[in-house]
Write a structure and sequence with these properties.
The complex is a heterodimer of chains A (320) and B (241). Chain A is an alpha+beta fold and 320 residues long. In chain A, 19% of the residues lie in helices and 23% in strands. In chain A, the strands form three sheets. In chain A, strands 5, 6, 9, 10, 11, 13 and 14 form a seven-stranded mixed β-sheet that branches. In chain A, strands 4-3-12-7-8 form a five-stranded mixed β-sheet. A two-stranded antiparallel sheet of chain A has the order 1-2. In chain A, strand 1 and strand 2 form a beta hairpin. Chain B has 241 residues and is mainly alpha-helical. Chain B is 78% helix and 0% strand. Classes of the chains: A alpha+beta (320), B mainly alpha (241). Chains A and B meet through helix 3 of A and helix 3, helix 6, helix 7 and helix 10 of B.
């Protein structure tokens, strides 16, 4: 069983955590408490046959639900149905083609308008943070969705540590470029490396999470090991995987999907049932494992209360 | 019922509907012909039913993954397009190899294409549109990607319905004209696939299909031009005489 133990810094987290984070954390504690209350002895073993791994799922996830009462998707579905084009364009490809990928050791280069740039060892990044389970809906732009218990910490905690300057208006992320381990990087399917970006206030939002695990266990390669982003109110492709570079920039970065097809994908990519994709309506989604695309999509993927203020006054039909 | 002479001359060109029955001299090779057709038909049925069998088995044994409907949609769509392209390559195959029996494979191939198109459409209607007519109509009207795919399906309906010998007789020369609809259906189908792939960034497969389709269509265009040239030449000769 692989579980990254919690790493608690010398400074109490209350001193470095703004109140909004507590709202998020309260939600988490409530959810986790719900799980613990019905805790059964021992873990549940789920087998990831395709990757040849056996993962023991901690018991706290049994009966764990989202804040809207939604049940979690299975470990198997979460780790065998992935969009990670570096390993192939079929949903099964990432779990099949990623076994050669080496997520350790890992360094993240932090660059741009910050007081503390440099190459950070992943272990050093994780040392002072408190890891949390975060149960989030993942809404793919392709109109399917899952409910996933991520394991990670708020991106804001890292950002504060590296001290961005006043010129840092956007954060630009880059995925690792390793064609020898990521077979589709040898093709021109997308311009590599994969790039994503957030506006500074989006990056600092307490819901925005840097993820190192799922179901309390280490993140499998196909899910973006060892470090990925999750922005739950945006379409899934904003959650860049296997991050090696975090750059603080002044201008809005061009993200890969916008680069590939700006007619269909934009920078903000907020989940919005009122703004259709050119090929399908975004008003409904297929909540896997359901067969029917009958689940109503919520504004900002159900996180409107937490995030809608970020976009007040913005025409969301225009800023896709 | 004897076929009108004019019809025969017309169809023996590029879009023949004449089976071996109408050939005047079957010759001593009839047995070989029949065995060959049977062998091809068996291969055709096995190949054409394989995707459906794979999907049904996968639905029960769980190898369709977390989103089986997406899998069904992709596999049936892909099989429809491939079946249409194979259907379209029968006539060129027949002309190039001189094996007239090939024509006997065309109807079952076309019907298999329709069979998969029907499953493809119904998967979308039942699981994506959840039997909601309003959503469906909205999608067809508002989204060119759907409009194109739906049109291809609609074009295939009368072709499937009139694929019987009875309808062939009843429609006469109009049958051949009607069945040229397959060129449009296949083209729209490939465009539909290209559009889908474009949003997913990987257009290699639809481009390959588009290439195959254009080879097949260019073959027809060249054929028509050749027929036209001959007709004009013949009428010239007649005028001179």
């Amino acid at each position: 069983m692989i579980i990254r133990s919690k790493k608690i810094s010398d400074i109490p987290s209350s001193e470095i955590t703004p109140p909004e984070i507590y709202l998020g954390r309260r939600r988490f504690i409530r959810d986790a408490g719900l799980g613990l209350a019905t805790l059964a002895v021992g873990g549940t073993t789920l087998t990831n046959e395709l990757a040849g791994q056996s993962q023991e799922i901690p018991a706290r996830f049994r009966n764990l639900k989202s804040e809207l009462g939604e049940g979690l998707n299975s470990y198997r579905d979460i780790t065998t149905y992935n969009n990670f084009y570096e390993f192939g364009t079929d949903k099964r490809d990432p779990s099949r083609n990623s076994s050669e990928f080496e997520p350790q050791p890992w360094t993240v280069s932090i660059e741009g308008h910050v007081n503390k740039p440099g190459n950070y060892n992943l272990d050093d990044i994780l040392a002072p943070v408190t890891m949390q389970d975060r149960v989030y809906r993942l809404r793919c732009v392709e109109a399917w969705s899952m409910v996933i218990p991520w394991y990670g910490f708020p991106l804001a905690e890292l950002i504060k540590r590296v001290e961005p300057t006043g010129n840092a208006k956007f954060v630009r992320f880059e995925t690792v470029h390793r064609p020898e381990q990521m077979p589709y990087q040898k093709t021109g399917v997308l311009p590599w490396p994969y790039v994503e970006g957030l506006r500074m206030d989006e990056a600092m939002h307490p819901l925005t999470t840097l993820v190192t695990g799922v179901y309390g266990t280490e993140l499998p390669n196909q899910n973006g090991a060892p470090l990925r982003l999750i922005v739950p109110w945006k379409y899934g492709f904003k959650g860049i995987k296997s991050i090696v570079k975090i750059e603080f920039v002044e201008r809005m970065p061009t993200n890969t999907w916008k680069m590939a097809n700006s007619f269909e994908y934009g920078f903000y990519s907020n989940v919005n049932p009122e703004v259709s994709h050119p090929r399908w309506s975004q008003a409904r989604e297929r909540r896997l494992p359901s067969l029917f695309k009958s689940h109503e999509t919520l504004m900002f993927n159900g996180y409107a209360e937490e995030v809608s203020h970020l976009y007040s006054g913005m025409d969301l039909h225009r800023w896709k | 019922m004897a076929m009108p002479k004019k019809f025969l001359t017309f169809t023996q060109g590029w879009i023949s509907t004449a089976g071996s029955k109408s050939r005047p001299h079957p010759g001593p090779n009839t047995m070989i012909h029949k065995t060959r057709i049977l062998a091809f038909k068996i291969v055709l049925w096995v190949a054409a039913l394989a995707p459906a069998a794979w999907l049904i088995a996968g639905a029960f044994l769980g190898w369709l993954g977390a989103n089986p409907i997406e899998k069904v949609t992709h596999v049936t769509g892909m099989t429809t397009l491939i079946s249409l392209l194979v259907t379209l390559s029968i006539t060129p195959l027949r002309r190039l190899t001189g094996w007239s029996g090939a024509i006997r494979l065309r109807r079952p191939l076309g019907l298999f294409a329709f069979f998969y198109a029907l499953i493809h459409f119904n998967t979308w209607f039942v699981f994506d549109q959840v039997f909601n007519w309003r959503w469906m109509v909205e999608d067809i009207i508002e989204r060119p990607f759907i409009t194109v795919g739906f049109s291809a399906f609609v074009i295939l309906i009368p072709l499937a319905l009139t694929s019987t010998k009875g309808w062939m007789r009843r429609l006469g020369t109009r049958w051949a004209k009607l069945h040229r609809g397959i060129y449009f259906a296949a083209t729209l189908g490939v465009v539909h696939f290209y559009w889908l792939a474009k949003s997913k960034a990987d257009v290699r497969l639809p481009l390959l299909l588009a290439f195959c389709l254009s080879v097949l269509l260019v073959y027809r265009v060249l054929g028509w031009l050749e027929t036209r040239r001959r007709t004009i030449a013949r009428s010239h000769r007649r005028n001179i005489n």
